From TrEMBL:
<dbReference type="GO" id="GO:0070929">
    <property type="term" value="P:trans-translation"/>
</dbReference>
<comment type="function">
    <text>Required for rescue of stalled ribosomes mediated by trans-translation. Binds to transfer-messenger RNA (tmRNA), required for stable association of tmRNA with ribosomes. tmRNA and SmpB together mimic tRNA shape, replacing the anticodon stem-loop with SmpB. tmRNA is encoded by the ssrA gene; the 2 termini fold to resemble tRNA(Ala) and it encodes a 'tag peptide', a short internal open reading frame. During trans-translation Ala-aminoacylated tmRNA acts like a tRNA, entering the A-site of stalled ribosomes, displacing the stalled mRNA.</text>
</comment>
<keyword id="KW-0963">Cytoplasm</keyword>
<protein>
    <recommendedName>
        <fullName>SsrA-binding protein</fullName>
    </recommendedName>
</protein>
<dbReference type="GO" id="GO:0005829">
    <property type="term" value="C:cytosol"/>
</dbReference>
<dbReference type="GO" id="GO:0003723">
    <property type="term" value="F:RNA binding"/>
</dbReference>
<dbReference type="InterPro" id="IPR000037">
    <property type="entry name" value="SsrA-bd_prot"/>
</dbReference>
<dbReference type="Pfam" id="PF01668">
    <property type="entry name" value="SmpB"/>
</dbReference>
<dbReference type="InterPro" id="IPR023620">
    <property type="entry name" value="SmpB"/>
</dbReference>
<comment type="similarity">
    <text>Belongs to the SmpB family.</text>
</comment>
<dbReference type="InterPro" id="IPR020081">
    <property type="entry name" value="SsrA-bd_prot_CS"/>
</dbReference>
<keyword id="KW-0694">RNA-binding</keyword>
<dbReference type="GO" id="GO:0070930">
    <property type="term" value="P:trans-translation-dependent protein tagging"/>
</dbReference>
Amino acid sequence: MAKKPSNQICTNKKARHEYFIEETFEAGLSLEGWEVKSIRAGKMAITDAYVIFKNGEAFLFGAHIQPLLTSSTHINPDNIRTRKLLLHRKQIDKLFGMVNQKGYAVVPLSCYWKGSRVKCEIALAKGKKLHDKRATLKERDWQMDKKRGFKADMR
């Protein structure tokens, strides 16, 4: 298993399997204090998350941040609340325009630390059909078999 970089919090491996990635964007996340503490402890998952648009703003929906028992004693945490994504107006307009076209979606790919801030890499993506997913798996298996063959030849 590949080791994740030290600044990476979580990844959405399912997104690259389910979608063709057209373009990626870096967005900030608007978080509460208990959420940041939980993220530092590695309690975040974005596997089933996606981006929605309301009133000209982008929001991350479905990201799960499990609250820590020690940091959330005086508040009532909502672990799957909708969190605001911090993007430039031009980026929001572009994403919103593309999502309104057939087949496009905006999905989070990964979350990571950039300095002391949490950033989310989001992507404009187009859904894959079943035969596309099979072709991707076949190509990946072929690449792995090729590498194994080269290793066997080296010995």
